[in-house]
Design goal:
Blueprint: H1 3-6, H2 12-26, E1 39-40, H3 44-71, H4 78-106, H5 111-125, H6 128-131, H7 133-145, H8 148-157, E2 160-161, H9 163-192, H10 197-233, H11 240-256
Parallel strand pairs: 1-2
Helix pairs in contact: 2-11, 3-4, 3-5, 3-10, 4-9, 7-9, 7-10, 8-11
This protein binds fe (ii) ion (FE2) (2 copies).
One fe (ii) ion binds near residues 61, 91, 94, 173 and 177.
């Protein structure tokens, strides 16, 4: 029996189990369920911090839309194109909802600020997402997969919320994002599983290198972003870097079908 056949299927249950295993091992201070019922935004300062946090979220989604729109024309694979058309539609709708909600609450159109932050993503990521198909996979790993543990932990420790945003997140964003993760994995496996052992070793080495480059490029942004999340929602971020690093190893191990212990040492988000 090969390693591939013994691996559990990648499901949302598998994600939660893996993240809880990581918490138990590396950061037992983090809760495995939601700790307290969050309260609503109250003060003007809280609203300002919330806008900043959500503008960052809208920029993340709009940047994904822009990258995927470039790729859809560059890789003429109908399976990928059909998947990307869904991802573009969903992440575009997430950005649009967020933009409208901030506009509604603040009375100001946040588009200019969102666009500035999208530009920032293009600057720190450089051409990595559109360099070649493996650069694009590294992009998808970073923008859809590697952030999952942090998002789940945030949802468990958030103290302040906008209920309208929370409802959209649980009813629309969460299920859409699961589809995106499964879609990236399915397309990746459709290529990787067909490769010979020699080709696989070559592809794995290249993807690891590109994923490491992505990590180095994203580190300053992630540090800053987590602080923005903490300031806006009160979510716990102390020790989250260790969980991020361990989760990223799990994702890469699964994608490359290489046991965790056999992966090289990786760049840490805290570097
Ligand atoms: Fe999204
Ligand atoms: Fe997404």
């Amino acid at each position: 029996m090969t390693a591939t056949l013994t691996r559990p299927a990648w499901t949302t249950d598998f994600e939660i189990e893996t993240i809880d295993k990581i918490i138990a091992k590396h950061a037992p201070n983090f809760p495995t369920t939601r700790v307290q019922e969050p309260r609503q935004l109250t003060t003007a300062e809280e609203f300002e911090k919330f806008y900043r946090f959500r503008i960052g979220g809208a920029a993340h989604d709009l940047y994904i839309v822009q990258v995927c729109s470039k790729i859809i024309d560059q890789i003429p694979d109908p399976d990928l194109q059909l998947f990307l058309s869904r991802q573009i539609g969903d992440d575009g709708a997430h950005a649009q909802f967020t933009r409208q909600r901030v506009w509604e609450l603040s009375g100001q159109d946040p588009t200019k600020k969102i666009v500035q932050e999208v530009q920032n993503h293009w600057e720190f990521m450089g051409d990595l997402p559109i360099r070649n198909w493996l650069g694009f996979i590294a992009f998808e790993l970073h923008y859809e997969l590697h952030i999952v543990a942090q998002l789940i932990l945030n949802s468990r420790t958030t103290k302040i919320v906008d209920p309208v945003t929370s409802k959209f997140a649980s009813q629309t964003i969460l299920p859409d994002e699961a589809v995106h993760r499964f879609g990236v994995l399915a397309w990746w496996q459709s290529k990787y599983d067909k490769a010979s052992q020699t080709e696989k070793a070559e592809i794995a080495a290249q993807l690891l290198e590109l994923d490491e480059e992505g990590q180095r490029r994203r580190n300053p942004y992630l540090q800053k972003h987590w602080q923005i999340v903490h300031d806006a929602t009160g979510a716990e971020i102390a020790g989250i870097g260790v969980i991020y690093d361990a989760w990223r190893r799990e994702v890469l191990s699964y994608f490359l079908d290489i046991p965790i212990a056999e992966l090289p040492q990786l760049v840490s988000v805290s570097e």
